[in-house]
Amino acid sequence: MPTDSPAPERPARTLFSRLSPGGERNFADTLRDERTGGVLLLLGALAALLWANLAPESYRAVSGTVVGPAALHLDLDLAHWAADGLLAIFFFVVGLELKREITVGELRHVATAALPAAAAVGGMVVPAGIYLAVNAAMPGGAPQGWAVPTATDIAFAVGVLAIVGRGLPVALRAFLLTLAVVDDLLAIIIIAVGYTDSVTLGLLLGSFGCVALFALALRRGVRTPFLLVPLALAAWALLHASGVHATIAGVLIGFAVPAAPGSAAPASRAPGAAPDEHADHSLAEHYEHLWRPVSAGFAVPVFALFAAGVTVEVATIGATFTEPVGLGVVLGLVLGKPLGITLATFLVARFTRARLAPGLGWWDVIGVGLLGGIGFTVSLLVGSLAFGTGTVLDDQVVVGVLAASLIAALGGGAVLSWRGRVHAARPGAS
């Protein structure tokens, strides 16, 4: 009698195996979503606060762990690697956005850029003035932190707008994006000029040379990462060693990427080869598409993990709202941002030909101004540059930025949610 043949073995299942190509694309697209980036940034900050308060010694030990070769001036602790290294990726994406906006976007035309650009300037000048006034009037003031409340966190602000913005005109999102991009550009200039003590000229020129070679390679159609990545890393390392904050290298590399339509394809293609799938797009757009998930999903949340970890004590909270540094940050972001953005927009609209886009009202501008008070990523970076990471004054900056950003998000979100309902109720609204 024949024996039964053994049942075929089932293939073993692998836990945590690599995603399929389709799954990887979906995951990356999720990280590109503005709301996802804002949520991950918030989770990084919350994780930092929990870690720093539940296990402060562990948090300080990990943050202070030194990694890197001392011979290359890269023996940095993990907190500085997050601020100097990972944030360079964030600023690289910012540089790509700036290049694209200047080349083909809203900043290309003076008429469309005037209002949001003026709003960005007003949204930086007034908070800085409020901070300086508070620190000049109160004993123990520290004027070197004037730039902390001048920055708007584009990821958080646009994320809040994406959550509450149903029914709002598309022009309002364009206004906020352009404002935030100009704000980032001005913040970059402030970091490069205002928080650089000394510069080694030879190393600075070496960094610029690497950026120039990077740009030349791209213009010659070179796309291989085996050349481009080492050039970018060399530009970053030389700039870091020169004394200029290393994140500026990310901006310079981003600016070096061509943003003209069609620049994503290599300059030459082998005969008979299929057309490049990115031929109709700019190279800046292509790189932004590739690197935004890395920035939003990893670089910025990890920076938040190491930047927002302050041990919250009653004394620290009290000092934030009573001492000049913390009070100047809170008032600058919560009051100075909406006041500066709204006032500058009004003055430009009143005395020039620039006008609000059709369908927008002044309450929409006020709502965006309130969202401008969300000053997380760059504000924390400037605070660490001004006062030193982990110092008493830096702790006040962290608590002040977190508190002000929460107030700004709630206030701006409430106003824009109401405005969304108003716009949706108008005749002809879809």
From TrEMBL:
Keywords: Antiport, Cell membrane, Ion transport, Membrane, Sodium, Sodium transport, Transmembrane, Transmembrane helix, Transport. It is a multi-pass membrane protein. It catalyses: Na(+)(in) + 2 H(+)(out) = Na(+)(out) + 2 H(+)(in). Coiled coil: none annotated. It comes from the Bacteria. It is found in: Cell inner membrane; Cell membrane. Gene3D superfamilies: Na+/H+ antiporter like domain (1.20.1530.10). It holds the Pfam family Na_H_antiport_1. The chain crosses the membrane at residues 37-54, 78-98, 110-134, 146-164, 171-193, 199-218, 298-321, 327-349, 361-385, 397-418. Na(+)/H(+) antiporter that extrudes sodium in exchange for external protons. Belongs to the NhaA Na(+)/H(+) (TC 2.A.33) antiporter family. This is Na(+)/H(+) antiporter NhaA. It comes from Cellulomonas xiejunii.
